[in-house]
Amino acid sequence: MARMFPTTVPRETSAAETQLFSVLATLPDAYHVFHSVKLRKRDQDDRFLDKRGEIDFAVLHPRFGLLLLETKGGKLRRDGIEGAWYSEDAQGVEHEIRDPFVQVDEQVVLLRGFLGDGVGTRRFQYRVQAGVAMIQTVVDGPIALHAPRHAVIDSTDIPNIEAAVVRLYGEPLNHALPREAIEAVTDMLSPSVSFVKIGLNSRFEEIERTRIEPTESQRFLLDHFEFKTRARVSGCAGSGKTLIAFEKARRLARAGLDVLFLCYNKLKRPGFGRGSVLTRKERMEHAIQVRSGD
After folding, report:
1. Exposed e or buried b per residue across 257-290, where buried means at least 16 C-beta atoms within 10 angstroms of its C-beta
2. In terms of domains, do 128 and 217 share one?
């Protein structure tokens, strides 16, 4: 049995994709089959737009490479005059759809870009082929110049699905893909990622690390306060008021004074106490006590 990603077909999957999922699952163990792979890549020519797509099925084999399949179900037709494709729903209503052969070719281009850019995949050469699965109908011959019969899997191919897949692959690779190449593309198409939730205090410390050095304008204010015993600083949230205050406390401590830093916001106090603004050496050498107002 092929290794399926995911292991079961999602409930909202179309009837045609559900059927093909079950058929592809019968492929031998060497095959990896990925269903519904979402793609999103930055367009180099237009930096403010992303190219998006979805691969219905990607079939991976070490001796052949990758095969992308676009799946279409139900009654289909292509209008030769307009070059348009149509699909008929269960109620007998016809809807215009995109050319499935153009769709899958676009996904090939996108995926090749990912493979060439990927840290784990770029050192390997992956051959990527494409085809269209129309498994609820019969295709007797070529559909169009860009849609030959050998690029189609139809209902007559289901009994011997591996032969149909190999036909779409073409000739085997000169050198089989190594295990590392298979693992790299598997991680790309079906990655497993874990995220650790951080608390408010940890989040504050993360923010403070990016503000550890005062800006030029903040340094100007601090220098202006050098010989003043009282000062009031106002500003919007995130403007650096707390950083200015603590930098002033640090300068006083470096001058040999004992400093008490009063902070109304309790969430900020742990951040200062763990060294995001004050280094461990400074905490050891200078006496700065931090207290929140209650």
Report:
1. eebebebeeeebbbbbbbbbbbeeeeeeebebeb
2. no
